[in-house]
Structure formats: C-alpha cells, structure tokens
Amino acid sequence: MSKHKSVIGLKKRKGSLECCDIYKVFKLTKKPSKELPERTTSQPLELIHMDVWGPPPVKSKSGVSYFLSVVDDYTRKVNVMYNKKNVFKYFLQFQAMAERQLEKKIKIIHTDYGMEFISKEFAENLK
C-alpha cells in the first residue's frame, strides 16, 4: 500500500518481511475454488432457490437486518430483497418480473422450509 501510495500518511518501511513456515505450507496446499457446481437445470426459472438471512451482527446504515435472496439455478442471477416481514410480497414482485421478462413460469422453488415460506398465501399462489 505504501509502494503505490494508496494510503495517505503511511510511511514506507525498508527491508522485507519473511513468511513463517506454516504460512508457506498452507499456501502450497490451498486448492483453487473457481469451479462452479454442475447445473441441474436446462433453462431459466426451472429452479429457484430462496432463503432469508439475518440478523447480521451489525445493522446496515439503512437499518436493514434481514434480507431475502432469490437465486435462479440456471442463470445464477441473484435478486436481493431487504425485508423479512414481506417475503410473500417480494416473492410476488420477483415472480411477476421474472415471468414477464423471460416469458416462462417458475417451475420449482427450493427453500429451507423457514416459517416465512410456510403460509396459506404461498400455498395458494404455488398451486
């Protein structure tokens, strides 16, 4: 950072830092994780993964403490919706947008069976 002057006021130190042996061994055995798992779907909206996450240890600046993630298995596109209370409302918005844009219907929804996904509204909509 001091070499490229990316931090104001950081003084340049002379000399070099030596890595410890454990660090070198760890770096040698670390395997790259760039491969994505094989797709199990053949088209968008065939399988949607949904999960609610939160609360984080620290709230965001806007006060958001939960979010709903909606991931299409085929495209790997992630849609994030910031509210735990309105999961069904956000899902309906996502469903309408995705089905209108792609001219396809959502076939399968995968969740962790969280309470926010278990409601009469969800059941009626998914029939």
- Approximately how much beta-strand content do the residues carry? 15-25%
Strand arrangement, major sheet:
3-2-1-4
Which of globular, elongated, flat, extended, rod-shaped describes the shape? elongated
Rg, Å, rounded: 22 Å
| Mean pLDDT across residues | 79
Low-confidence stretches: none
In the CATH hierarchy, what is the class of the domain at 47-126? Alpha Beta
Distance between the termini: 57 Å
Tally the beta strands: 4
What class would the helix/strand composition place it in?
alpha+beta
CATH domain fold name of the domain at 47-126 = Nucleotidyltransferase, domain 5
Q: Please describe the biggest sheet, giving its number of strands, its sense, and whether it closes into a barrel.
A: 4 strands, mixed
In the CATH classification, which architecture of the domain at 47-126 applies? 2-Layer Sandwich
Q: Which percent range fits the helix content? A: 10-25%
The SSE string, one letter per element, is HEEEHEH
Tally of helical runs: 3
Q: CATH H-level name of the domain at 47-126... which superfamily?
A: Ribonuclease H-like superfamily/Ribonuclease H
GO biological process, one term: DNA integration
Domain Integrase catalytic: 40-127
Protein name: Integrase catalytic domain-containing protein
GO molecular function, one term: nucleic acid binding
